[in-house]
Amino acid sequence: MLSRCSSRHHLTRALVLVLLITHIHAGPRYSSRIVEIQTGAIRGIILELNSRHLEPVEVFRGVPYAAPPVGPLRFQPPELPLSWPGTRLADTFGAVCPQKYPDVSNRTAALQFMPKGRYQYLKKLVPLLVNQSEDCLFLNIYVPGSGYFW
After folding, report:
1. Which residue in 43, 86, 103, 109 has the fewest CB atoms around it within 10 Å?
2. Is 57 strand, coil or helix?
3. Out of 22-26, 33-37, 50-54, 79-83, which region has the weakest mean confidence (pLDDT)?
4. What is Dmax (Cα atoms) for the chain?
5. Helix (H) or strand (E) holding 109
6. Are 99 and 132 a contacting pair, CB within 8 Å?
7. Per-residue pLDDT tens digits for 98-111
8. How many angstroms separate the CA atoms of 66 and 80, rounded?
9. Has this prediction a pTM greater than 0.85?
10. pLDDT exceeds 70 at position 9
């Protein structure tokens, strides 16, 4: 017969295991395929779509297609990106090119200068423009029908 302390210990271990498994599944699901490109290897993620009629899509986010246009490369034609060792996880978006957009923090003031539809669109768009940089030469590649790689 298990003592009360031992019973609590097993319950705690089981709870930690459930939380750990839940945390593991909450993150991105990485593709098992590694793709070799000119500058190195990349591994994407599998994006589940909210439709029973559409298969998952393999996504490669933030893949550099040119060297960062900073320093002496600023305002120059793009150069090839730098190579990297190992496999690069292509699971996060790269920076967005710098953009100036209307202030939508005050709804009443914003609606005096724009239609309601534009205001609603900009409210959804602004969070995606947080990470802005001149180093914004990245591709996001979506590969449909690649479900056999995971």
Report:
1. 86
2. strand
3. 22-26
4. 76
5. helix 107-111
6. yes
7. 999 999 999 999 99
8. 5
9. no
10. no
Q: What's the pLDDT at 18?
A: 38
Amino acid of residue 107: R
Cα separation of 38 and 50, whole Å? 33
Place of tokens 């990485």: 30
Q: Is 2 helix (H, G, I), strand (E, B) or coil?
A: coil
Q: Residue 138 gets which letter from DSSP?
A: E
- Which residues have a Cβ under 8 Å from the Cβ of 143 and sit 6 or more positions away? 44, 57, 58, 59, 60
Question: In which region does residue 145 sit, left (phi positive, over 0), alpha (psi from -120 to 50) or beta (all else)?
Answer: left
Place of tokens 């923090």: 105
Token pair of 33 as six digits: 């395929």
Identify the bridge partners of residue 143 per DSSP, sorted by sequence position: 58
- Site of tokens 């939380």: 19
